[in-house]
Amino acid sequence: MEEKNRRRFSRVNILWAVRLDFGTVEYKQFVNNVSLGGLYIEGDFQQVLGDVCIISLKQSGLFSEEAVHAVGTITRISKHGVAVEFLSMKLDSFFFLQATLFSKAVDPALLGREFISNNIFDLEDDLILFEPFHMDFQTMKQVQNLLLRPNPSERNS
């Protein structure tokens, strides 16, 4: 019997540089695959489930500017890497991510159906909030503040 895929969104294989900033520690790796709900990164991470981070994704070869800036949480840890679920991102990052995934997906129509049927997004001002995390109001405000502070690349300039 075939096991049903429990993922809400199809993964798209994309090689992007990623920086995960947990506040006290930062990791720089490459993403193996991305979906509208999160990403998987291979590597050795010293984090625990539920840790929240700032995610900075850059297209390979375009290291001058971030393509996607988001906040996420560790949802799965394996011996090979971590799965990070998006909690929130600015609208422009979401549109860029969505357009890129549609253009690189093996079945863009499936991705479109998943987007419509898995309506797990809320919009507040210019931030997309992802509902699977079920944030309370205080946590939501903390996530928003993480996205509104200067990007790490801007702080180092």
TrEMBL record:
It holds the Pfam family PilZ. Gene3D superfamilies: predicted glycosyltransferase like domains. One of its GO terms (molecular function) is cyclic-di-GMP binding. SUPFAM superfamilies: PilZ domain-like. Residues 5-92 form the PilZ domain. It comes from the Bacteria. Signal peptide: none annotated. This is PilZ domain-containing protein. It comes from Candidatus Electrothrix communis.
